[in-house]
Design a protein that fits this description.
Largest sheet: 8 strands, mixed
CATH architecture of the largest domain: 3-Layer(aba) Sandwich
Bound molecules: zinc ion
Shape: elongated
Number of helices: 9
Distance between the termini: 13 Å
Structural class: alpha/beta
């Protein structure tokens, strides 16, 4: 519904969307420090005549578009934070901040939601209900969505459905991927220290070598996923950091390791650390070593509501045509939109940025995408909100 009107206005605001995206890209801010980005978002909303609340759960910003008639409330969400890496892509709008880069596409999410807000504000007299535009901090680290929920973003007026999207390097430009059910994993973290006793590299029998124990632990961990868990339930266990020792002839006292556990349900989320602990206990006790093992639970798995997802699918088909809307494959990435989806019926979809089948890796210093994706993201968000308000 109103698809022609939406498309027309997306074109009208596209140059502004590109300009905003490039500015945000040039001045990226790390998680929890999105002060200037939040300021730009609030100013842009105000200039468009949209009601704004700031400082929600940290640097969170909320825009509120009130329709001409009473109705339901729909929330659209974007994230604003960048990552700690040096941009290597040669683009005219390259990051001006050494060591900080929008390498996940959150600059695009913010610009696309601002475009969507401007379009919905233009159409508000014809819409029943309310649209909440949620710009959240700290998606990449501590989960800004949860703090915005604690600060009451889902209340006053209370939200009936929520939608968000991610630019996606694994999907072709001009397409959108949707999926009901689990779509993104719990990205839990672990830290391990194996404590042996140091000694002479030439006299290992007088020491307890934590380096060889760490090697055994890592290999044994691989059998948790391949041999211990149900093969039909997905999980990933990756040791991503190992640190121990200083030189070639000294057995060190300790080895530290860090890594990530990715799962889709609470049962598996508890099972994997439990099995890891068994491995650690067995290998270290046989050698007379000890260990510490800490797991930090991060985001919940993201589970899309079936009815909300059907609505996104229909809206995306209205905007792009049915041939350009496909079924997503669940990802082992994490996403704190999960907290919104836990509280209200919600769906998170994926907007393609790959060109000619060549995937674009996120969190890479070479991450880049064509701004045509802003049109797709903004139009699909708008259409979904309009259809939800007009049809429910
Ligand atoms: Zn990311
Ligand atoms: Zn992201």
């Amino acid at each position: 519904m109103l698809t022609g009107e939406i498309k027309l206005r997306i074109e009208k605001y596209y140059p502004r969307g590109v300009e905003l995206r490039r500015h945000i890209h040039q001045y990226p801010e790390l998680s929890g420090r999105e002060v200037e980005t939040a300021g730009l978002v609030a100013d842009t909303l105000r200039e468009a005549g949209i009601e704004v609340r700031t400082g929600i759960g940290g640097n969170g910003v909320l825009g509120i578009v009130r329709g001409g008639k009473p109705g339901k409330t729909v929330l659209l969400r974007a994230d604003m934070d960048a990552l700690e890496l040096n941009e290597a892509a040669d683009v005219p709008y390259k990051s001006k901040k050494p060591g900080i880069m929008h390498a996940c596409g959150h600059d695009g999410h913010t610009a696309a939601l601002l475009m969507a807000g401007m379009v919905l504000n233009d159409l508000k007299d014809r819409l029943p209900g309310t649209v909440k535009l949620m710009f959240q901090p700290a998606e990449e680290t501590t989960g800004g969505a949860e703090r915005m929920i604690e600060a009451g973003i889902l209340e006053d007026p209370s939200v009936d459905a929520a939608f968000g999207c991610h630019l996606w390097g694994d999907a072709e430009e001009g397409t959108v991927l949707v999926k009901a059910g689990p779509v993104m994993a719990s990205p839990d973290e672990f830290r391990i220290t194996i404590k042996g006793s140091g000694g002479h590299g030439g006299m290992p029998h007088l020491a307890v070598d934590p380096v060889s124990l760490a090697a055994q632990v890592i290999l044994q961990f691989q059998t948790i996923v391949s041999r211990r868990k149900n093969p039909l339930e997905p999980a990933v266990l990756s040791v991503c950091m190992i640190r121990g020792g200083y030189t070639h002839n000294v057995i060190p006292e300790t080895v530290d390791m860090m890594g990530t556990i990715r799962t889709f349900n609470e049962g598996m989320r508890d099972f994997i650390p439990c099995e890891m602990e068994k491995v650690l206990r067995g290998i270290t006790s046989a050698a007379g070593a000890s260990y510490t093992f800490n797991v930090t639970k991060r985001f919940l798995p993201l589970v899309n509501d079936a009815a909300a997802t059907a609505l996104v699918r229909k809206a995306a088909e209205e905007v792009l045509g049915p041939d350009n809307v496909h079924e997503a494959v669940a990802s082992m990435g994490g996403e704190d939109f999960a907290y919104i989806a836990k509280n209200v019926p919600a769906s998170f979809f994926f907007v393609g940025i790959a060109r000619e089948g060549k995937a674009v890796p996120h969190h890479s210093p070479h991450f880049r995408w064509d701004e045509g994706a802003l049109r797709v993201a903004a139009a699909c968000l708008c259409q979904t909100a309009v259809d939800f308000l007009l049809e429910s």
